[in-house]
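Two folds, back to back.
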Amino acid sequence: MAILVNSETKVCVQGITGKAGTLHTGTMLEYGTKIVSGVRPGAEGEEVLGIPVFNRVSTAVEETGANSSIIFVPAAMAKGAALEAINAGIKLIVIIPEHVPLHDELEIMQAAEDSGIVVVGPNTPGLIAPSLKCKIGFVPNKYYIPGSVGVMARSGTLTYEIVSRLTLAGIGQSTAIGVGGDPVIGSRFPDLIKKFEADPETKVILLIGEVGGTQEEEAAALVADGKIKKPVVAYIAGFSAPPGKRLGHAGAIISGSQGTMESKLKSFQKAGIAVAKTPSEVLDLVKQKLR
């Protein structure tokens, strides 16, 4: 079991002939991801690493049964690629590029919501389900092993550090998802925490957040209201973040009293969520919750 992906997940790589698209198609294939097609206008009939390339996503869906896509195109082209995938009936879209224009992001998310399609990103390393040997993105799979900790995070590199500690201790993961660091993203913490709650493989939910935005507070509210019964452990980056500063991600902006470290910690305290002060403390807290 996992969330967002399953044994029937078949991936189409949009932008497969580009440098990043080709590179990460190779690493995804090596891990075991079922990549069935690629898309690059003007390249139909070609193959990349044995994967057939089509001009349009709709053709890729018709010919190969693709039901998920990952987008490796420049940010300015992400909207066109995402809307094409939505119109073709793709059910899960992972948008890799960062700094997608804000109005483009809004249009993508509205179209996805109207069509009942799940979007991860933009500005995400993707997701991985170790038990299925499926990753959609460039997550370094050497840090992940099958297990029962569901991970959702805003920082890719911080996630790799924390998850590697879990893995070295023999604690595996059910699914790990980078939600994305742009201001407007698809799947957010409050969406994913409900999916982890419903996933029988997940026993503990690990939330790796950062200052800015209200995702963490919204997820904590679900726990406080009793809608999430599984234990939750959290780590928030940015204890010394000054108000009004952007820290790394475009979405990591503190505005007024919302999105501050104080606001997030208060929400977690109210919900009874265990919070690690350093990445190294996460391991001990997760161990406690798994007992």
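---
second:
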Amino acid sequence: MTYAPAFNPAAAARSIVPFPRQEASAEQPRVPKQERRPPQAEVLRVLGQNRFRYLHHNGAPYAVPYDGPTIAVPLRAAAHTGTGSLRQHLTLAYVTEHNRTPSQTALADALAALDALAMRVPETELHLRVAPDPEDPAVSWLDLGRPDGESVCLAPDGWALTYPGPEAGLVWRRSKLVSPLPRPDRVAGGWRAGLEEFGALLPFTPETLPLAVGWLLAALRPGIPRPIAYLTGEQGTGKSTSGQMLAGVIEGARAPLRQAPESLRDLGPTTAAGWILALDNLSGMPGWLSDALCRVVTGEAQVTRALYTDDDVNVLTYQRPVLLTGIDLGALRNDLAERMLPLELAPIPRHKRRTAGALWSAYEQAHPRFLGALLDLATAVWADLPYAAAVDLTERPRLADFAELLHALDRVTGWHSLAAFNSSQDALNDAVLDGHPVAAALREWTVSPAFPSNGWQGTMAELHRMLGSDGRGLADGWPKTSAVLSARIRQVAPAAST
């Protein structure tokens, strides 16, 4: 059995170390608490609000820097040529100020808050490459695609290189298809000297060059329907290179020519992302593409179902200049033919052919002069447009705005571009009639001895039986019913009446 030692009060008293007792009146010392840092997401949100203002366009949020060019920065894109994404801007700002990398969760939370702020403001119009002035309809702007936002302000009294400020209400939108343009030069000999150099480099015929210049002027004029420039010529005339150079005056040197899309769904995003829609080496024109191009030049709103939703949509709106190259487009539909502008290229003699490297080097050296000459001519045409529009033209084609622009161009230059355009329209109408089986059958019948001298009257069923009685009714493409025949006649009637 064990026993605990007996308690000894004297020994216990000697082992106790006395603790100094504080007076009741003395204040207790307090250890300061470490200040809590705000969460990373809150720091990133404050950085974003202090450095950017927010807006949305076509349902997508954008940020515009307070201290920088008026170029919209996307919130939801991972990367964006020329602007970067807001995620990249916030990451750089945080690393610069705090010398550490923010977490992806904090970035996502901050961007979600800024996204909500952007969607609270009214819808804002963002412009790509060419824009009208928000205050003066006679003034237009051209985005040079440069990182600093330098642009051309084009007015009837001249053009100037400047930077659109926040008070102007003009915000540019950039995409991977917006490449930089050179700073335009003022040509010593005026616009005529610059355009003569342009005509010497591209093999346009003398009758075609004024139409090509008119098409470029229309591409600088926002908000008007423009004809579809169609480069044509025999094999070896340099259609693809000339098309690339023609579009490149406004889109940037070596502007890409694209192959024809396979579906309407593919056409919309690529058209909206660039200014000039240039399609290369077309050997035919399917019906859906013909209809789509008609809508592109007059103004299109493409509606598609939004991803991961059942009842929401995405809307793409655009109105673009269109350029096509090819040898044969096949039988054109009448509505497309009325919007076409054939630009014929002359054969290049052997002694004038150059290597691709030498040709592009000459083009890139002359590009600033081309652009400056075009801007000089545009100011004169812009100044004459109100007077040209007031003149009662004897004939106006379907693209009346373009006809008035050509009329002003002729008044400034002494050219005859409007007459050349009307003549090309007549030739296209004849081509439409020749390639249309119903129109060809009617034309053949009306000039034959079997056609009554005092005209013919009857039902559409009788006309269908009569025109198809000689074996034509068994041919491919011939209307199988009288109702289809009636629709085909109405389709080709505008071309036949011009």
